[in-house]
Amino acid sequence: MLADGKNQPPKPSLVSRILSVLIRAVVLIGFLFVFDKLLPSISEQTQSFVVAKWQQLSLLQQELPTENSLPSPLPEKNLTDTWGAARSQGRSHEGIDIFAERGTPIQSTTQGIVSKVGENNLGGRVVVVVGPGGAGHYYAHLEDYADIAPNDWVNQGDIIGYVGDSGNAKGTPPHVHYGIYINGSAVNPYPLLQKD
């Protein structure tokens, strides 16, 4: 008996506690089932978002590319250091140009997450892959894209597009402009690429 003279309420029996847990579990499973069946695209988008964020965190913890650590985006094609060359409107070249036949497949130099598949004024059709250390790998003047989309994971050597002359390269010999951006600033990719 309590100090105020009232009896303590009886404890629920084991059976009623088990029944209560089972009812809650059934309701939760039912809710998850309905959520999964009625909103599959949201479920897939949420899963894709979580996986992409996990991959981004993993990439950020990896080392930035170092000298001679990256394969060429166009294997067996001649590499020339065109970094810093004069460009129109007083600009300087923030990458290197690698020439090849129109439609030659362009390979990702690194594993990473596709952050852009689209167009811009100078680069025309471009693809950007965020790789280890958060470095952005920029491929421009593409003729066409591979079957990729933003947030896709690519491995080193995967095809990301095809050599062309889009953007301000229209009418020039087909090539890929390859650039690397670290902390938002362009760095010369030539020393980072392996030479045959």
Automatic annotation (TrEMBL):
The keyword Transmembrane applies. Keywords: Membrane, Transmembrane, Transmembrane helix. The chain crosses the membrane at residues 14-35. It comes from Psychrobacter piscatorii. The lineage of its organism: Bacteria, Pseudomonadati, Pseudomonadota, Gammaproteobacteria, Moraxellales. Pfam families: Peptidase_M23. GO terms for molecular function: metalloendopeptidase activity. This is Peptidase M23. PANTHER family: PEPTIDASE M23 DOMAIN-CONTAINING PROTEIN, PEPTIDASE-RELATED. CDD domains: M23_peptidase. Residues 92-189 form the M23ase beta-sheet core domain.
